[in-house]
Design goal:
The complex is a heterodimer of chains A (326) and B (333).
Chain A lengths: L1 H5 L1 H19 L6 H26 L7 H18 L5 H25 L4 H20 L11 H5 L4 E2 L2 E2 H19 L1 H11 L1 H6 L4 H27 L10 H11 L11 H20 L7 H17 L18
Antiparallel strand pairs in A: 1-2
Helix pairs in contact in A: 2-13, 3-8, 3-9, 3-11, 3-12, 3-13, 4-5, 4-6, 4-11, 5-6, 5-11, 8-9, 9-11, 12-13, 12-14
Chain B lengths: L17 H6 L2 H19 L6 H26 L7 H17 L4 H25 L4 H20 L13 H4 L1 E3 L2 E2 H19 L1 H11 L1 H6 L4 H27 L10 H11 L11 H20 L4 H29 L1
Antiparallel strand pairs in B: 1-2
The chains are: A mainly alpha (326), B mainly alpha (333).
Chain lengths: 326, 333
């Protein structure tokens, strides 16, 4: 019990619940199960993306190209659907995931084989992927009337009272939890982030692990590409523009250290949920949606400031505490 | 700038001659690319080689380049500021607010620049006093600063800046030479002297290479970093004055996405994203390259979004090229 009280995830969950309760106080019915399910559904994609980003950040890298990857993959499956409506939607989902995987592998290969810093690689592919959308679509949009009914329905059909989109997030989160805590790949991802040198001695291929983390984030971004286009029924160059930093923000709020090695699946999910609840709650309590950006910015700064207290301050305290200098 | 991994460093038997080193240096390579782009542009479009065209070409990169100068120092010291575009938005909004209270042109300029400086101080405080990682802090302040603009402006815009204010972004000092361009060149010289000819500049390099060694050597690491954040904020404030004056209006979405373009410019200029190396001439030439690419492609009616593919590919290509060459050379040796 004492252990739980000391985790960041617990306090973040408390804050999220408190926010929901406070909003419910102002506007009764906000905390009704149906509305909460709606909020979860709205946040489902951010959760999936934050999990992918988490894998990359844990290895001391960062993937700024996720939103562009999502938009490009979304456009590809939307175009396929418009041209060949007969192709079943599950096949399109697999195509989306594979497409995203390829784009992520491209990032990962540059980081692994050439040793270019991840932030530089993904800064480049951020603009490249988005530019390619314009090329393949010729600057056009893919609208609702071009999409088949199945394509739009596969995020909306309700199973056991919850839309499929919610179920995708739940299944992916569960699979992710198992991967991060119960498989050697998951442990390797943590190890690489905590201490790359020690990882090498432990027989972990640091480059390959980073590469795989990029493949995972790419695959999830690609899958979200389908989800995004299906949910918002629009494929265009502008899809999810600027969203890459929202994904990073969700991770940071969730207590995932940008220095690598620290962070949990629950943290990433709660970080995304925190941003999701703010999005939905502000209009309900009559605060202009224009406040949303400043509030999430303040939340990020606050979250990092609070997280930093628990982090090691490598090389900072050497003059006072010589024995910790490594 | 080629030292991506520590293992890749080796000590040569004898040093290259200074001339050979200068020819093989990063700025020299960039200069070749820039001249190549210039020649290609003049062949591809008949409109390129006119003084007014070339003058217009400078407008689309000078504001970003002015920020890139300060950002280069910050990245060399091992930090980064992703909030620069948001600082522009906030500074521009503050100028617009002041305008509503009847502040004149000199007052507007002072308010714009001071807002930038305060934003930089805020970033610097969070990073150096609280010891937070700059990439995350500035992602936060990026939302925070621009968020304040959105709160103030909503979906509105500030317009009606006085005609005299228009000089900063639209005026010409002499013939086709714009005020913005001259200001950029002056800043470039100042930053060159600061980084390459002063103790402060050496401290920046030392901190980027090894903060711990820098501290043991008596460099006041935190103070230097704080000053660099202030400088970056200050230059963003200046850029905000120029951009607001050029557009003659303020919207909360002003300069959206510029932070990544500025970082691209700096990295393209040969500044190591890991800190510790880089030069101002490289950044200046990289600014010209990005200006030439976007303007040249613009003359050829290439849409802006396709240009971004070139910029992104250029970024990865110029970083990857020396690494690939070195790998081939090492394999042969």
């Amino acid at each position: 019990m004492k252990g739980i009280l000391r985790t960041r995830e617990f306090w973040l969950a408390v804050i999220v619940v408190a926010m929901i309760a406070a909003t419910n106080f102002r506007s009764p019915g906000f905390a009704s199960p149906a509305n909460l399910a709606g909020i979860f559904n709205d946040t489902a994609m951010l959760m999936i993306l934050a999990l992918g980003q988490m894998a990359v950040i844990l290895t001391r890298s960062i993937d700024l190209s996720m939103a562009s990857n999502l938009a490009l993959t979304g456009m590809i499956v939307a175009l396929i659907n418009a041209a060949y409506p007969a192709i079943p939607v599950p096949v399109l989902m697999v195509i989306a995931a594979l497409c995203g995987l390829l784009l992520g592998a491209f990032n990962g290969a540059l980081v692994w084989l050439l040793g270019i810093p991840a932030i530089v690689v993904t800064l480049g592919t951020l603009t490249i992927f988005r530019g390619i959308i314009f090329l393949i679509a010729g600057g056009k949009w893919v609208n609702a009337d071009a999409m088949s009914t199945g394509f739009v329905q596969y995020t909306r059909i309700e199973v056991l009272g919850l839309p499929l989109l919610t179920w995708y997030a739940i299944v992916i989160a569960a699979a992710f939890f198992v991967m991060m805590t119960r498989t050697s790949l998951g442990r390797a991802i943590y190890a690489v982030g905590i201490n790359p040198t020690a990882s090498v001695y432990a027989g972990i291929d640091v480059g390959r692990t980073t590469f795989l983390a990029f493949c995972i984030s790419g695959m999830l971004a690609g899958f979200c590409g389908y989800l995004w286009v299906s949910r918002y029924v629009i494929g265009s160059v502008e899809v999810a523009k600027g969203y890459e930093l929202t994904i990073v923000a969700a991770c940071v709020i969730g207590g995932i250290s940008i220095a690598g090695g620290v962070g949990t699946v629950a943290g990433a999910l709660l970080g995304a949920l925190f941003l999701g609840v703010i999005n939905v709650a502000l209009p309900v309590i009559n605060i202009s949606p224009f406040w949303q950006m400043a509030i999430s910015g303040a939340a990020i700064i606050l979250a990092v400031a609070l997280n930093a207290r628990g982090d090691k301050r490598g090389g900072r305290l050497i003059l006072r505490q010589t024995e910790t200098a490594s | 700038m080629t030292d991506v991994t520590p293992e890749a460093r080796h000590i040569p038997d004898r040093l290259d001659s200074p001339l050979r080193a200068a020819i093989l240096s990063w700025p020299a390579l960039l200069l070749v690319v820039a001249v190549g782009l210039f020649v290609a542009n003049s062949f591809l479009s008949p409109y390129f080689l006119s003084p007014w065209s070339l003058s217009d070409a400078t407008f689309n990169f000078t504001e970003k380049a002015i920020i890139a100068l300060a950002m280069a120092l910050l990245i060399i010291s091992g930090e980064i500021d992703l909030s620069v575009a948001a600082i522009i938005a906030l500074a521009s909004t503050m100028m617009g607010l002041a305008l509503q209270f009847g502040v004149g042109t000199p007052g507007l300029v002072v308010i714009g620049i001071l807002t930038g400086l305060f934003c930089g101080m805020f970033n610097g405080f969070l990073v150096t006093r609280l010891g937070l990682p700059s990439i995350v802090v500035t992602i936060g302040t990026m939302s925070f600063f621009r968020g304040i603009s959105f709160i103030v402006l909503g979906d509105q815009a500030f317009k009606g800046y006085p005609p005299a204010f228009g000089f900063f972004g639209q005026g010409y000092v002499w013939w086709v030479v714009s005020f913005e361009f001259v200001l950029f060149l002056v800043c470039a010289v100042l930053f060159y002297v600061l980084l390459h000819r002063t103790n402060f500049g050496r401290h920046v390099f030392v901190i980027g290479n090894n903060p711990m060694a820098a501290r043991f050597s008596g460099v006041r690491v935190e103070r230097v970093k704080f000053i660099l954040f202030c400088l970056t904020g200050l230059m963003s404030g200046i850029a905000a004055v120029l951009l607001t004056s050029r557009l003659a209006s303020t919207r909360p979405s002003i300069a959206l996405g510029w932070e990544l373009e500025v970082v691209t410019m700096v990295v393209l200029g040969g500044v190591s994203i890991l800190g510790g190396s880089g030069s101002i001439p490289g950044v200046v030439i990289a600014a010209f390259i990005m200006g030439l690419v976007t303007f040249g492609l613009g003359l050829l009616n290439v849409p802006g979004i396709v240009m971004s593919i070139f910029i992104g590919a250029l970024l990865i290509f110029v970083i990857a090229l020396p690494i690939v060459f070195r790998m081939i050379r090492e394999r042969r040796a």
